[in-house]
Structures are given as structure tokens and as C-alpha cells.
């Protein structure tokens, strides 16, 4: 067994930019550079937010057989591409990470949902929850190199592939399976060389996934079970179970030192929790968000700026938070108007 040795431009003119301090309405620019890319599920667009000055530009997904439905975003330094899943058209759109011109389109399965890539393998893994498969796409050629079926026994119990993540070394991919009848949902560990299932575990209800280089564990927020479960990435044995109400979104600092999750079902109250990955415990008080349905998380590599999408058909908000000094606890800076139903979100350098 291997061991682990531990990525039609609409050129909007600052579309709906409303970021402002809650204390007096003064706009606060973020430190550092890069961009935050948001998939607007109900608008068929992506919003690109400048980390440096909070300016917003909007780009449309190319037309398809159906109105585009952008879901999740993944950035790869391989050819500097931003990948956006289009659920309505069973595809993934590749944008140039600088100009946001469309560079190509990759076919996926029916029901495109979460996706994740690995620089080590050069592959993007895309979950298809109508086909009950995971498409493995070459991020250079945009060709499908493999299709991984969700284990048949989990599908027979109502299971569907949901979240997915691939470790940075390209050893394993991890796929969460939701809707499984009985006690708990599923987690499937897949060999990233031959795409065979090598291990499985039962986890909490509605699991999402996060990991980081230098941290040997997999973090699994399970909304329906009100926990974040910590698993050993090799064995999938439980390391810790951390109580967090409605734990859903998953954001990890690049160095793996702190993990952030959102309390999605309880709306804006006490909606961001910070977990110290050394002690595997919640640190500080949970942070309130001003809008309902705090969903997905992106952050700058140093963790200084944190962005949260607030999803829902009529929602158009991303909230912004800042950490200071050595404290990992974020404080609210303000909000940015984006497209309708902001869903997936990612940092792009």
C-alpha cells in the first residue's frame, strides 16, 4: 500500500458592489491580491471579485442546449484555468484565469454537482448525481479519462455522489454519498491511479469534505448530524467528532492549521465556526452572518480574507470577513452583490 508523503464576457461595471463596513458604511479594501470567483446558479454567470479593491466583473457561461446552471468552481494552475460545472448541460466550462475567455468545454455526466482537481494528477473529478458516477477529466485536454461508478449497493439504498476531493499528492480521491437509507451516509476512498474503490466508511448525514497538505486527516462536516467528523485519510478511522450545529460549508487554510464551516440550516445566526486542527476543537465564539443560508467558503491562502456565499433562488449576496494578527476568528467586513443564487466559490491567484 502506498503511504502519503504529505489547485461571452459581460464585463460588468462593478455589478452591484455593496461591500462596506458595518461600522459607518466605509468600504474596506482587502489585503493582498487575487480573485474570488462565484458561480451564480440562477443567473447562468460567474462573478469575479478583486481581492485587492473589491471590484466585481461578471461573465456569462456559453449558451448550451439548456440555460446554463453554474454550480461549483475549481482553479487549476495547470494552464491557469478556472473550471465551472454546468449542471443543466452536463458539462464543465474552462475559463482562462486571467481574461476569463472560454478556453473549452468538457463533457461530464448528468447531474453535475461538486468537483475537485489535483495538480499531481492533472485531473478534475466531477460528481454526477443523476448518473451516479464521477467523471475524471484531463485538465489539459478536457477529455474524460475515466468514469467511476458509485458503489451499486449504496445506489440501491438511495445514495448519490455529492462532494468530492482529491489529495494534493494524487494518491486518493474521496467521494461522499448522500441519501443512503439507514444510519449515516457514505464515504468512498478511491485509488487515484486506477480508480478502484479501496476503502469505505459510514459518516454523518449530508457529508462534505476538506483536507490540506501537511495535515493527515480528512474533515467531514455533516449537516444532518450536527457534527464535523475527523477521519484518518489512510484508514478512514475516526480521529475526532466535533459538535457543530448544521455543519455544511468546508474551508481549510492552505497550511491546514484551521478549518472553517458554516451552519447552513440555521441561517445567519452564529453561522461560521472555526476549528483548530491541532486540538480538533472549536475555537472562540461562532461568528454571525447577516444573511440566511451561509453556504460555501473560499479564502485567501493566508486566511486573512474569507468569503461566504449565501444561497437561495432570490439571494445575491457574498459576505466578506477578515482575520487579524494571530487570531483565526473572522470579523464581518461587509457584503458584495453578485448574481442570483451564489453557490460554489473559489480563490484564484
Summarize the structure.
The protein has 349 residues and is mostly beta strands. Helix content is 1%, strand content 46%.
Describe the structure.
It is a single chain. By secondary structure, the chain is mainly beta. It has a single domain (35-348), classed as Methylamine Dehydrogenase, Chain H, CATH 2.130.10.10. Helix content is 1%, strand content 46%. It has one helix and 27 strands. β13 (172-178) and β14 form a beta hairpin.
Keywords:
349 residues; mainly beta; Methylamine Dehydrogenase, Chain H; 4-stranded antiparallel sheet; 1% helix; globular
Q: Which secondary structure elements does this structure contain, and how are they paired or packed?
A:
Elements: E1 35-40, E2 45-50, E3 56-60, E4 70-76, E5 81-86, E6 91-96, E7 102-107, E8 112-118, E9 123-128, E10 133-138, E11 144-149, H1 152-156, E12 160-166, E13 172-178, E14 185-191, E15 197-203, E16 217-222, E17 227-232, E18 238-243, E19 251-252, E20 258-262, E21 272-276, E22 281-282, E23 294-299, E24 305-310, E25 317-322, E26 331-337, E27 342-348
Antiparallel strand pairs: 1-2, 1-27, 2-3, 4-5, 5-6, 6-7, 8-9, 9-10, 10-11, 12-13, 13-14, 14-15, 16-17, 17-18, 19-20, 20-21, 21-22, 23-24, 24-25, 25-26
CATH architecture classification name? 7 Propeller
* Percent range for β-strand residues: over 45%
Overall tally of domains: 1
- What is the number of E strands? 27
Largest sheet: 4 strands, antiparallel
Secondary-structure class: mainly beta
- How many helices? The count is 1
* Outline type: globular
The Rg value, from CA coordinates, equals 19 Å
Mean pLDDT: 91
